[in-house]
Amino acid sequence: MGCSSCSTGKDGQPRGCKNNGTCGTDGCNKLTVFDWLSNMSLPSGQKPFDCVEVRFKNSRKEFFRNVDNLPLAIGDVVATQAKSGHDVGIVTLTGELVKVQMKRKKVPHDDEAVPKIYRKASQRDIDIWQKCRNKEAEIQKRSREIAISLKLQMKLSDVEFQGDGSKATFYYTAEERVDFRQLIKDMAKAFGIRIEMRQIGYRQEAQRLGGIGSCGRELCCSTWLTDFRSVSTASARYQQLALNPQKLAGQCGKLKCCLNYELDMYLEALKNFPPQDSKLKTEKGIAFCQKADIFKETLWFSYKDDPASWHALDKDQVLEILELNKNNKKIASLEEYAQDNISEEKMAFENVVGQDSLTRFDRPKNKKRNKKRRKNRPKNPSNAQ
């Protein structure tokens, strides 16, 4: 997703616009949308769509109406309408795709309540905006100290200033209801601005702050995931994952969203699979299912009296045995069926060219010894005899 102008340069410093991923081309921003209609012209007589998408701090995006028909493009800094005063943001999407995004987020494009774009931001607007952004870290630290002194059970995770610097929105997470009336009074007195408190969930907090997941990539919620589906432990059970909270939980403390990515495929495969609590009746005793591999369509069974010995059976074999048990018939033993599944293991790695040997670094280097042996060899083999 990174653009060429924001790629890393010397000593880890960003190149080009020096904005650390908030460049004007919007190529490496969070939750960006690729405008695949940008190079296509509108049909004759059709006017361009009068709404645009504007991004503010982190991943917050809103839609605004371009009432004055300003020539806006992706990356333009604009002054937008707010509840009081004005805000400053960056245009991230224009044209017909804005209508698609508004329909997806259930925002009626013909609603008169859609806020307006005042103008393109002047240099004075940008200077005030940048000055407020630079104060956010210090104000966040000071507000946390005030919340701790009041002994409030809450975590202030982020602060966002309005573009004109007249208001600041504090995002917080809390387990229970918090009475922050005294906190607002103290912060308004300390900072001299209007305060707005907004509670967010733990997943929304991870989305705003971002980070690196256990897979080594950026968090899905802060890069491309726009909606949060509920994730339950049943998703892990269907995929036969160990219910280990340390591995299944993400940085937000909740179950990872990626547990739902392959869940539909597992559910589709389990439709034709025998149930996990299947019991096979044999003449040697009753056998219980110990493990199942959905992709290989293999199940491992063991006798009740000998749980340590597992026997691998195919899915079709298990279904066949269950059908016989329904007709009050027993098989002789599981070993007869398991014996048919034993096959020779194929080589997983094959050295074709000769330079990809897995043990090439383990071979001792005896070049010097070989040279000495060649020097000591007699030139005429007949004289050596």
Task: Characterise the protein shown here.
This protein is an alpha+beta fold and 385 residues long. It is 28% helix and 18% strand. The strands form three sheets. The chain has a five-stranded antiparallel β-sheet. A four-stranded antiparallel β-sheet has the order 9-10-11-12. Strands 6-7-8 form a three-stranded mixed β-sheet, sandwiched between helices.
Topology:
Layout: E1 51-55, E2 61-65, E3 77-81, E4 86-93, H1 96-104, E5 117-120, H2 123-149, E6 155-161, E7 167-173, H3 181-191, E8 194-199, H4 202-209, H5 220-223, H6 233-238, H7 245-248, H8 263-270, E9 279-282, E10 285-293, E11 298-303, E12 311-314, H9 315-326, H10 334-339, H11 367-376, H12 381-384
Parallel strand pairs: 7-8
Antiparallel strand pairs: 1-2, 1-4, 3-4, 3-5, 6-7, 9-10, 10-11, 11-12
Helix pairs in contact: 2-3
